[in-house]
Amino acid sequence: MRAILTVENFASNLVLTFWTPVFVGIFIAILTYALWPRNKAMFDAAARQPLRED
Question: Into how many domains does the chain fold?
Fold first, then answer.
């Protein structure tokens, strides 16, 4: 039996082969940025900002 290429199959294969690794890479980049030691002071200051009284 021969497989028929449909729009749904093409879209599903495109998502699995292209977009999934792209989004995993973006997630890893964001996670690395958030956990980088150089950014700790900036994130600590941002966390204290709502509690500050002006």
Answer: 1
Please check whether residue 39 is in contact with residue 33, taking contact to mean a CB–CB distance below 8 angstroms.
yes
Please write the tens of the pLDDT for every residue from 2-50.
Answer: 566 677 777 788 778 888 889 999 999 999 999 999 999 999 999 999 8
* Residue 15 included in any domain: no
As a whole number of angstroms, the distance between CA 15 and CA 9 comes to 10
CA distances from 22 to 7, 8, 19 (A): 21, 20, 5
- Is 37 contained in some domain? yes
